[in-house]
């Protein structure tokens, strides 16, 4: 609530939005949290770039759009950048897709420099200018990760926008990506005051660090789990940035992500061959059969099926997985991995699958329908992350009765609890980040699956019954918005 009693107006500024431009968890959050916030009484709208293919996906999904009569303009790098504003109601949430030349390249650049970072700065300025083109002005700009971190920086240090007095929240979905690049010619081209480039603001060992600037400049900072909020203040987790996060800790809080439980629902999922639920688990066997068949394995195999759906990057711990290939094969389980990412990790898994073709299969790439079949058809979901801000996959797997085996880190620690604790739990966890640690938990899971079907079913049901809705977390975000409006 604002002081006048009206609903607080929040603009979500995001460069990913499921189901139109999702790359990872940020896309899922941006696609589902606004709906929950709206239900909680927040007047929330979303602005996002129309990256290549986005408007086509919007049309293909039957979402109606209109083009706003006015364009949005931003001054950057000595010229005016304009964008068409395509307005849509996505499940009741007003969403603005900004369509411009600036967003015609790939969504995320592989190399960061002034030129490849520019679309993100332009996007933030256009988000700040949006209020001049539509009949609605946000009280709070809610930004996400380095790709929209320029916005709080502009509100604090831009020669024009710092006069406007807007409030901002910076949500950290993954502190590993910070938006670091050479300062020349960014400082002059961006319109930021030259004095904003110093070690207590956005300067970082001689470079620009947009995320650092966003953290310092934002009115409040959140991250996506309470454990990660603590971890990122330590040198082990975020190295040089940890000092800044520690310094800013009074405005930092961890709010766990929820899931779009309607989208991730084994009882309503159109991408899987048979539906199932807490009340009737029978369909899961048909999903397992279909998955085994798809992988080229015997569909009637009774062996436990371990699945992974993930970006194949260092964060996710897949070097442990391919280094343990022999031990995993020895357990008799099948291991199916869906993902793509770094060459050295993909190659490690390919080699493992060639060495153990009866046990290990890699589906290379990004495949949304197959991911649903993996979640539904698996018995065990393996997620041995080195660090994990929140993690959605372990929650999705639990919704689908696939028991998670995870490392006790970040949001995994806040959502998965070991069944061998005196009070019981919903999965298997390990702490030590090495093959022995991972295999200790994975072997316990495989043995339990093989030898104690009654307990296994209880563990599955425990996970399926967890409340992964956004309701509680949306309430915490709403409290934060209300606090900022006091
Ligand atoms: P992160 O955001 O670090 O990638 P999360 O667990 O928070 O990890 O979210 C990952 C999301 O991306 C999940 O919805 C997962 O199903 C999806 N995903 C990851 N890799 C793939 C893939 N190869 N194909 C389909 N979906 C994927």
Could you characterize the architecture of this molecule?
The protein is an alpha/beta fold and 486 residues long. It folds into two domains: 264 residues, Glycogen Phosphorylase B (Rossmann fold, 3-Layer(aba) Sandwich), CATH 3.40.50.2000; 183 residues, Rossmann fold (3-Layer(aba) Sandwich), CATH 3.40.50. It is 37% helix and 20% strand. It has 19 helices and 19 strands. Strands 1, 2, 3, 4, 5, 6, 7, 8, 12 and 13 form a ten-stranded mixed beta sheet that branches. Strand 18, helix 16 and strand 19 form a beta-alpha-beta unit. The longest helix is centred in the C-terminal third of the chain and has 17 residues. The protein is globular and about 65 Å long. The relative contact order is 0.11. The site of adenosine-5'-diphosphate has 18 residues, from helix 1, strand 14, strand 15, helix 14 and helix 15.
Care to give the gist of this entry?
With 486 residues, the chain is of the alpha/beta class.
Structural key phrases:
single chain, 486 residues, alpha/beta, Rossmann fold, 2 domains, 6-stranded parallel beta sheet, 37% helix, 20% strand, binds adenosine-5'-diphosphate
CATH class of the largest domain: Alpha Beta
The bound ligands are:
adenosine-5'-diphosphate
Tally of contiguous helical segments: 19
The CATH homologous superfamily of the largest domain is termed Glycogen Phosphorylase B
Low-confidence stretches: none
Sheet with most strands: 10 strands, mixed
User: In CATH terms, what is the fold-level topology of the largest domain?
Assistant: Rossmann fold
Tally of extended strands? 19
Category by helix and strand content: alpha/beta
Q: Which band does the percent of strand residues land in?
A: 15-25%
């Amino acid at each position: 609530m604002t002081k006048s009693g009206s609903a607080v107006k929040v603009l979500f500024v995001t460069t990913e939005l499921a189901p139109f431009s999702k790359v990872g968890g940020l896309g899922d959050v941006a696609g589902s949290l606004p709906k929950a916030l709206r239900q909680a009484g927040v007047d929330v709208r979303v602005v996002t770039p129309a990256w290549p293919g986005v408007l086509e996906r919007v049309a293909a999904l039957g979402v109606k759009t209109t083009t706003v009569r006015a364009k949005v303009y931003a001054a950057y790098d000595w010229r005016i950048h304009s964008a068409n504003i395509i307005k849509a109601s996505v499940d009741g949430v007003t969403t603005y897709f900004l369509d411009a030349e600036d967003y015609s390249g790939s969504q995320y650049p592989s190399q960061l420099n002034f030129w490849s970072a520019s679309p993100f700065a332009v996007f933030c300025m256009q988000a700040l200018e949006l209020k001049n083109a539509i009949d609605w002005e946000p009280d709070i700009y809610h930004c996400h990760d380095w790709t929209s971190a320029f916005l709080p920086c502009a509100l604090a240090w831009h020669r024009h926008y710092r006069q406007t007095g807007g409030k901002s929240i910076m949500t950290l979905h993954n502190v590993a990506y910070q938006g670091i690049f050479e300062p020349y010619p960014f400082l002059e081209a961006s319109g930021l005051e030259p004095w904003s480039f110093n070690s207590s603001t956005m300067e970082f060992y001689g470079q620009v660090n947009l995320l650092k600037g966003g953290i310092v400049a934002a009115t409040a900072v959140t991250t996506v789990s309470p454990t990660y909020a603590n971890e990122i203040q330590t040198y082990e987790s975020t190295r040089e940035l940890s000092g800044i996060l520690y310094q800013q800790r009074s405005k930092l809080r961890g709010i766990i992500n929820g899931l779009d439980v309607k989208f991730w629902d084994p009882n309503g999922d159109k991408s899987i061959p048979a539906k199932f639920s807490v009340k009737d688990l029978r369909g899961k066997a048909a999903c397992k059969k279909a998955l085994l068949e798809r992988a080229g394995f015997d569909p009637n195999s009774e062996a436990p099926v371990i699945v992974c759906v993930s970006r194949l990057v260092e964060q996710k711990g897949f070097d442990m997985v391919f280094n343990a290939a022999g031990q995993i094969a020895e357990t008799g389980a099948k291991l199916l991995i869906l993902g793509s990412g770094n060459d050295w990790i993909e190659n490690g898994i390919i080699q493992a699958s060639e060495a153990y073709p009866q046990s290990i299969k890699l589906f290379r790439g990004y495949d949304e329908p197959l991911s649903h079949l993996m979640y539904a058809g698996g018995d065990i979901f393996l997620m041995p992350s080195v660090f994990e801000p929140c993690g959605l996959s372990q929650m999705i797997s639990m919704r689908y009765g696939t028991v998670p085996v995870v490392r006790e880190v970040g949001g995994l620690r806040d959502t998965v609890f070991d069944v061998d604790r005196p009070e019981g739990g919903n999965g298997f966890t390990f702490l030590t980040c090495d093959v022995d640690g991972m295999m200790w938990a994975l072997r316990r899971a495989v043995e339990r699956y093989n030898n104690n079907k009654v307990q296994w079913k209880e563990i599955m049901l425990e996970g399926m019954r967890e409340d992964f809705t956004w309701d509680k977390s949306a309430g915490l975000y709403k409290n934060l918005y209300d606090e900022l409006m006091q």
